[in-house]
């Protein structure tokens, strides 16, 4: 079975500061990993995904994530936070041939002026 | 127009009533899903369908049913709504031929059961 744990249900950073959202996964097979973002009153939008190519994945809006097999992690980062980054972020895991995506509990990101 | 369209976007219904949420997609994907979102619980899978003749239960299917009327249409029904089914519901699609089982979501349907 696959699972995802997002460390911290709520993260608050200052505008211009580094954003780090943590995600650890469990999978008995090589995983596919995803980060989705949900802006207020909207659906989920794909930020980036890892599908066994380069371990450092660049996504939209300046976000990136690094797949670390030894740490079973796929943390999301952005060097400098903007007010528009305030949203809820979801990490998810799947695998080749898997029937569905398994989501973490979500992390709400707040940006302080 | 959105690739994955959900109707209604908001609905308030009474306990015991039957309610249907509809989903249509223009992405041409075979796979469709219904998820439920609750604060602190992330997204949980209710039902999924890999083609018109294929329906599968997810992790929280009790109290729900689905119908796959066509490749592009997948509806979710609550036969007798109860207050703890108050949540944000998402329809989604995916294409297994694409890389990594990427899922594409609709904008969600807010359901309140009073």
Tell me the radius of gyration of chain A: 13 Å
User: How many helical stretches of chain A?
Assistant: 0
What's the total number of strands of chain B? 11
Order of helices and strands of chain B: EEEEEEEEEEE
Largest interface: A-B, 25 and 25 residues
Strand content of chain A: over 45%
* Nearest-integer average pLDDT of chain A: 92
Helix content of chain A: under 10%
Strand content of chain B: over 45%
In sequence order, what are the helices and strands of chain A, one letter per element?
EEEEEEEEEEE
Structural class of chain A: mainly beta
Give a structural overview:
The complex is a heterodimer of chains A (113) and B (114). Chain A is mainly beta. Chain A is 0% helix and 57% strand. Chain A has strands at residues 3-7, 10-14, 19-26, 31-38, 44-50, 56-58, 64-68, 73-78, 87-95, 102-103, 107-112. In chain A, the strands form two sheets. In chain A, strands 2, 4, 5, 9, 10 and 11 form a six-stranded mixed β-sheet that branches. Chain A is globular. Helices cover 0% and strands 57% of the residues of chain B. The model of chain B has no long low-confidence stretch (mean pLDDT 92). In chain B, the strands form two sheets. In chain B, strands 2, 4, 5, 6, 9, 10 and 11 form a seven-stranded mixed β-sheet that branches. Chain B has 114 residues and is mostly beta strands. Chains A and B meet through strand 4, strand 5 and strand 9 of A and strand 5 and strand 10 of B.
Could you give a quick summary of the protein structure above?
The complex is a heterodimer of chains A (about 110) and B (about 110). Chain A contains no helices and 11 strands. With about 110 residues, chain A is mainly beta.
Q: How would you describe this structure in keywords?
A:
heterodimer; A: 113 residues; mainly beta; six-stranded mixed β-sheet; five-stranded antiparallel β-sheet; 0% helix; globular; B: 114 residues; seven-stranded mixed β-sheet; four-stranded antiparallel β-sheet; 11 strands
